[in-house]
Design a protein that fits this description.
The protein is an alpha/beta fold and 451 residues long. It has helices at 21-35, 55-68, 83-90, 123-134, 136-140, 158-168, 193-200, 227-236, 263-274, 294-303, 315-325, 348-361, 366-369, 390-401, 432-446; strands at 10-13, 44-49, 72-78, 95-99, 108-114, 151-154, 180-184, 204-208, 240-244, 251-254, 260-261, 286-289, 308-311, 329-331, 337-339, 377-384, 410-416, 422-429. The protein folds into three domains: 10-156, 3-Layer(aba) Sandwich (Alpha-D-Glucose-1,6-Bisphosphate, Chain A, domain 3), CATH 3.40.120.10; 161-369, 3-Layer(aba) Sandwich (Alpha-D-Glucose-1,6-Bisphosphate, Chain A, domain 3); 377-449, Alpha-D-phosphohexomutase, C-terminal domain (TATA-Binding Protein, 2-Layer Sandwich), CATH 3.30.310.50. α1 crosses α4. The longest helix is centred in the N-terminal third of the chain and has 15 residues, at 21-35. The two termini are 19 Å apart.
Length: 451
Amino acid sequence: MSKIFGTDGIRCLVNKEPLTAETCLKISKSVAYILRNKGNNNSRVVVCKDTRLSGYLYEPLVTAGFISMGLEVILVGPLPTPAVPLMIKTLRADIGVMITASHNTYEYNGLKFFDRNGLKLNQKIESKVEKLVLSSTEYSKIANKSFISGKARRLEDASGRYSEFLKNCLSKNYIKKKLKIVLDCANGATYSIAPNLFWELGHEITTINNNPNGTNINKNCGAVNTQNLSKKVIQKKADIGFAFDGDGDRIIVVDERGVEVDGDKIIALFCKNFLKPKKIPDQFDVIITVMSNMGLEKYLTDKLNLKIKRTAVGDINVINQMKKSKCLIGGEQSGHIIMSKFSNSGDGILAALKITEIISKNKMITSKLFDLYKEYYQEKIDLFYKNKNKNMINIIDALNKDKSLNNKNIRSLIRLSGTEPVLRILVEGESKSLVKANSKKIKNIIRPYLV
């Protein structure tokens, strides 16, 4: 084991490194050592989780690690990831941790850490944690020599606090138009709070995949698979459907026809309704990623006169760039939508609420509301590999630099996933036939190197 953190915290198969019981304990102790308020004897940490079975394994492990270092642990139970930064703020905690593997199925789990400002750890801090965990000499130096330990308690009103925060994010001029909404909670962290919240706001709610059993999280449902949501929206003649992922920081929309609307279209809608171009040199208005559709880029720059910047994939990269440019809106095609006025994290429920706010102000059906630009044709391919090797890295670099695959008519991006052993290929262009031909070409070239 040479590295612990990926592009979004720590994530791997349950009971595999770096999330064996022994290493998990080391990680939580190391994070406590680095991030605790050393001038405060009452340092706090908020521990949250989603609904996967292995939460019962990792919640007590990280709790024990923090307690052993003298911290007070506040357990908030199953809640979406964006609830963690809020709890850190309202409880004056120094650390937050979300036990989740996001959109992955139950065989996976992970840890997302937040600092006292509610921000995910930067690479510098992650490197410090890795150094402590991976070096027995360094790790031996951080032991709590005191006989005084911390303690743990469960916060009973955590979901109520988060729900009230979300309601307060709505405009004061919010028009309470009753909508027929279908929610797909992915059998994950939004399973209880989302249906209750939208019902309290007066909407007619139908909910699917809101019965988590520990092993059905993200299983053919939620933001990663909207087929059942589309059918239910059509069946119920609903105005809109919202699909969340397992930890609730992503959202995908389904319109009244059952057609999927991705994160790019949501970003476009928010920019149209909530942004005005800045007149500040060298600053950006919107942050998107290298995966975002060229149609979105043209709409933002040509139609809305906004300045955009693309980052690498991963909401942490979007958030960091948003901080630098003081942006209000950023996100990913996959459904991470960040509205920095309200949160330092992608928040699926918040995005859904703001969409209902826009619908309530407009006399348009959902499909018309999101019909903002013409998408370029994209083809995405996922190829699994066994081992990362130098030859594979070299061929990826060569393909990404190949001008026959990247020019004014075609765009290609080949990258390794930061959360699982998958090579991801994106090919995009106005010509569907050219995109398909190049996709096939790239796949044939790279397949022999996936050993």
